[in-house]
Amino acid sequence: MRRPMAALLGGLTALPIATAATAQQATVSDTIVTGTRVPTPAERVPASITVLTRRDIEERGYQTLTEALTAVPGVRIAQLGGPGQQASAFFRGTNSRHVLVLLDGVPINDPSEPNAAFNFGNELLFDVERIEVLRGPASALYGSAALGGVVNLVTRRAPPDRGFVPYGELAGGTQRTLRAGAGAAGTVGAFDYLLSAQSFSTRGFNAIAQRLPDAGERDGFRGVFTTARLGWTPVQGTRIEGLLRWRQNNFGLDDVPRDDPNYSAEDRRWYGQIRGETRLFDGAWTTGLRIAATEDRRRFVNLPDTLSRSTADDLFRGTRTTLDWGNTVRLPSLGALRDGALGFGVTHAFEEARSASGSPFFRTIVDATQHTTAGYATLQYRLGERLDMTAGLRHDATTGFTDETTWRLGAVLAVPEISSRLRASGGTGFAAPSLFQRFGTTGSFFRGNPDLRPERSIGWEAGVETDFPALGRAAFATTSATYFQSRIRDLINFNAGFNTLTNVDRARIQGVELGLTLRPAAWFETTAAWTITGAFDDTTGRRLPRRPEQVVSITARVAPIPRVVVAPTVLFTGRSPEGAFASYSDQGVAFPYPRSNPPGTVVNVTATWQAFDQAALFLEARNLGNSRFEPANGFVTPGRSVLVGTRFAL
């Protein structure tokens, strides 16, 4: 959750512990720049990560963060409709509140969200340069909420060699969809800058399943994003920069089993940071300081109508201020040990939640704050030419409940004789109770539990990745297999009287991620990822809600003629249980209809023609088969849509 100031904004972790090649990374550079600013070959890093570059985002036509994550191995997205609607991410069978989301290394999970879960349906991607997705426990690097995984959104940066580079896009299509974005970036002397803005609006679809008694109505979406960055590099190795980002989304909401046409929402976020770093002792020691702040404001309004005379005006406001001091030190060689790096630092966060929701007669109130201070240390060394080893340790202290110490160990062994990499890692994670879970009240009926303990996990993974030569190509095919297992305890759930919360549940999870990438020609590449997950309530033995046993994604990049790229995607999601009151459930919906979500398949395709060196035309087609697949019981996948547009970079 906290990041050292010395961390490169483009890096996902404070140590080269956090990135590793997967079959889906074939188009990514063979090195990843870590928090030490030392390029580390991806095959030397012992963790499961998928990196989506700007090229991936554009060629596959990803509009939202939800779309970008659907094909990532080990990740299952359940969204209650289209853009803006609640979208929960389940990483390797863990809960949706067990995913930490970062923007340039800074946590942006909303402290006022009742379960501290992130809504992936709200984030647009025009100002994002790359998305790094880490799967598995990472609290030793990030602290709370990184129990199941981490998503880091890395914003675009200015080119170092040009003073003014404008870029933009304009597109329109079905459902009265209009998407526009414009930006400019450059470097002038010791200063660099970036300005970016995007708007996106659509009439949307009706997300309510037709089998329900009230068919509902379309739910539109309007979103606006702006981003500004200014940097100053007075001397080589020293940099100061500031970043400001604002977004606002307005959208309609569906509800089941009976939809309400007057139910709408506004979701707004301010984000800003100032950071400075410098290199000492000929670059051997990098130290830095950062202060960052986020403010989330969400409002949900439901006015009286013919379906219901009830009125709702729910307001959630969450703020977080983070202060980081971080260091990375290159270490000398010790015999056969070389390429050593030590990271250490201290971080402090202040969180505040102010919310009021529900009817006037059943009003839920949260008015609470908390402070968290953490210290961490990470270590990396390479033994000989084959074995890379990493370790991390972190201690978090939060006002009002037990401190938490987490650890992580990992290693990668290169076996060049068979073009293989063997990976193994293990560690612990935790998710602190939300401010609502600790201090929320609902009249005299419900009281939060300030004595709640954090949810805790221990997990490990082991994997192998192998390249196979054929047809004169050194990596004609790449296969990968990763087995993962975790146990989670002290899960938070209601007590028997439903008047407070307690640590009562346990879960056990195991599974495997299988990958195959084929590169038979320079113009054709395809990747298949198959994730098999068994996630169970350790008390009842029942499968956990919304965790399908099987998820399969197939992506391809086909360039049949010069300047033309076609990128199809096939997404298959297997059957999953559903249940609002099942142990370890996550915002399920309860009504007398099937308590499982049947399997479904969605097919998308994006085609891009680089008509000129500076301009391209593209077509984005979604859900070509008009699938009515229900990611969550009662909510269907948005229907068939087509978007046509142009993109330029001068």
Structure in words:
It is a single chain. The chain has a single domain, classed as Beta Barrel (Maltoporin, Chain A), CATH 2.40.170. The protein contains four helices and 35 strands. It has helices at residues 54-59, 65-69, 139-142, 435-439; strands spanning 31-33, 39-41, 48-53, 75-79, 87-91, 99-103, 106-107, 128-135, 149-155, 165-173, 177-188, 191-202, 221-235, 238-252, 263-280, 285-302, 312-331, 337-357, 364-383, 387-398, 404-415, 420-431, 441-442, 446-447, 455-470, 473-494, 501-521, 524-537, 550-558, 564-573, 576-577, 596-597, 600-609, 615-622, 641-649. The strands form five sheets. The protein has a 22-stranded antiparallel beta barrel. The protein is globular, with a radius of gyration of 24 Å. Residues 1-39 and 580-594 have low confidence and may be disordered.
Give a short synopsis of this structure.
This protein has 650 residues and is mostly beta strands. The chain has helices at residues 54-59, 65-69, 139-142, 435-439, and strands at residues 31-33, 39-41, 48-53, 75-79, 87-91, 99-103, 106-107, 128-135, 149-155, 165-173, 177-188, 191-202, 221-235, 238-252, 263-280, 285-302, 312-331, 337-357, 364-383, 387-398, 404-415, 420-431, 441-442, 446-447, 455-470, 473-494, 501-521, 524-537, 550-558, 564-573, 576-577, 596-597, 600-609, 615-622, 641-649. It has one domain (23-649): Maltoporin, Chain A (Beta Barrel).
For this entry, give a set of tags:
single chain, 650 residues, mainly beta, Maltoporin, Chain A, 22-stranded antiparallel beta barrel, five-stranded mixed β-sheet, 4 helices, 35 strands, 56% strand, globular, disordered N terminus
